[in-house]
Design brief:
By secondary structure, the protein is mainly alpha-helical. The protein has 7 helices and no strands. About 5% of the residues have low confidence.
């Protein structure tokens, strides 16, 4: 497919890696539908002024303070939704270690803690 793009739009083919199939297909679709080159279209779009003004802010704070605020917010949300009551419907089969295939170790640790609490409180399972 990338070879077709080289023929249709050499500049785009140079910018788009051959393994990026989605972009290659999009460029070929654009060429087929409009007869134009996606590289020229992209250049024209980059030259346009934005329809709105935007600002970029970066907020920083002490990590410990940030995590404390996040934890407090999550606790408030969980209390508000009564998730313990709603979790009574979980079947023993669904609540297994393999059910949570998290890559994030913090999330996985939270899941395993939750699971341990759930299995120790038989009324919820």
């Amino acid at each position: 497919m990338h070879e077709l793009l080289v023929q249709a739009d050499p500049k785009a083919a140079e910018e788009i890696h051959e393994n990026n199939v989605k972009r290659v297909i999009r460029a070929l679709e654009y060429h087929e539908q409009t007869g134009g080159k996606i590289s020229a279209h992209n250049e024209a779009q980059h030259q346009r002024d934005a329809a709105y003004r935007f600002y970029y802010f970066v907020l920083t704070d002490d990590r410990a303070k940030l995590y404390e605020r996040i934890d407090r917010r999550v606790d408030q949300m969980l209390k508000k939704t009564d998730w313990w009551k709603k979790s009574k419907g979980c079947s023993r089969k669904a609540v297994t270690e393999g059910w949570c295939r998290c890559r994030d170790l913090v999330i996985r640790k939270s899941w395993l803690t939750w699971r341990a609490n759930m299995t120790s409180n038989a009324q919820f399972i």
